[in-house]
Amino acid sequence: MSELKFPEGFLWGGATAANQIEGAWNEDGKGMTIQDCLPFREVGHDDFTKQFEFTSKDLEEALVAGPEANYPKRRGIDHYHRYKEDIALFAELGMKVYRLSISWSRIYTHPEDAEPNQAGIDFYLDLFKELKKHNIEPLVTISHYDPPLALTQEYQGWYSRECVDLFVKYAKTCFEYFGDYVKYWVTFNEVDAMERHPVTSGGLIEDRFTDIPFDLVIYQAMHHQMIASAKAVKLCHEMLPDAKIGCMMTKLAFYAYTCKPEDNLATQQRMRPIYRYVDIQVFGEYPKYLLNELSKKGYTIQMEADDEAVLKEGKVDFVSFSYYMTSTMAADIEGLEMAPGNTVNGVKNPYIPSSEWGWQIDPIGLRISLVELHDRYRIPLFIVENGLGARDTVTEDGKIHDSYRIDYLKEHVKAMSDAINEDGVELFGYTWWGCIDLISESTREMTKRYGFIYVDADNYGNGTYNRTRKDSFYYYQQVIASNGTDLEVKL
After folding, report:
1. Which residue among the candidates 385, 411, 441, 445 is catalytic per the annotation?
2. pLDDT tens digits for 393-414?
3. Can you tell me which residues form the catalytic site (predicted)?
4. Which of 102, 197, 319, 337 could form a disulfide with 52 if both were Cys (CB 3.0 to 4.6 A apart)?
């Protein structure tokens, strides 16, 4: 490991998403999103993918559910009413940047509305002013897994071309009202994820598509998101010439389980679906391997005459990504132990430890990922999600001693420093996922906590919702104050 060193002005911070923290799901003119309809389910850690199972029947039940039903995203952590308190804690932590998302349905009660919802505009304006008061730079995700429910109910989710113009109208509104406060933007969260959870990424419910292969539905929906993203990027460059707008991917990372050529080939093939939509956003065109995949399946993506030109004109300024873990791939998995992960399973790696939820902890994998991404795209990188979900215990004196989170952070900061100084990676920021406890996306629970700030709430909404600083809060405060050069644990 080289000497710890980060660029001057490196953006240290934390990240959340509107649907996981705001709550106030039906207040002040906010429309419903698909996230408001996802129930909490008691599933084991190895069965978390069941949380992503969603049918038309589930939606019907959600629309008539009473207040006693457990829809965790409806309450979040009540950030909507506590944002000033939370931002004050972020400032005390020393955060230089805060990655957040805007809820489309809070800006437009219905996506077809001619005028935005003023109460939603005012909420985010007040939030951005509060961040500015504390000298915290916002990084805004325009769409983070919460498509308006109307896109599912009145259209066919992102399979419908109409979503493109509706999104661009929404993005333009964000640029108009918030452009004075926001320098960094991201169009879609984890844009590669639609095939893993099409409901939250695209508002797609599989049982509603009976006369077309569902994977073709996903290809078409992704094309529409690529066009919407490119148009938003171009618009941002025109309206906010000093701003930067990027894409965001899930950096799922796989090693070959053995040195057998078959395992290496399987690993390479597994990575292509992760890269392909970022390839479009960076290079402005479909990669040949994706076109070949569509051709072999006999699929034709419906495009408009100027779509190729739109993609060329809407290339992003930077690549941001989430990184939590690595896994391994084998051509034949029979008899091999599998490990759960970030919305995907892989073969368990015997050389690295696992979290309580089975995610394999691999800081060296972060360095490898940074090098791979920088070599591939040759534009600046930003880590917008990294963190450890764990079960925290509050001691009798009200403390949370989360040394495991500190250890995870320490080793990943070292990996970032090595990537910058040893490998020449251009990395300009890092936001820890869930700087404050929130509703987990993968398990929809509060028990799986990420934050440096503890929120007194359980999986069923019980609790005071009071905020408490964990040991990791003071450690990250130290890391930020030293610009990543003081990693000694002093607690």
Report:
1. 385
2. 999 999 999 999 999 999 999 9
3. 385
4. 197
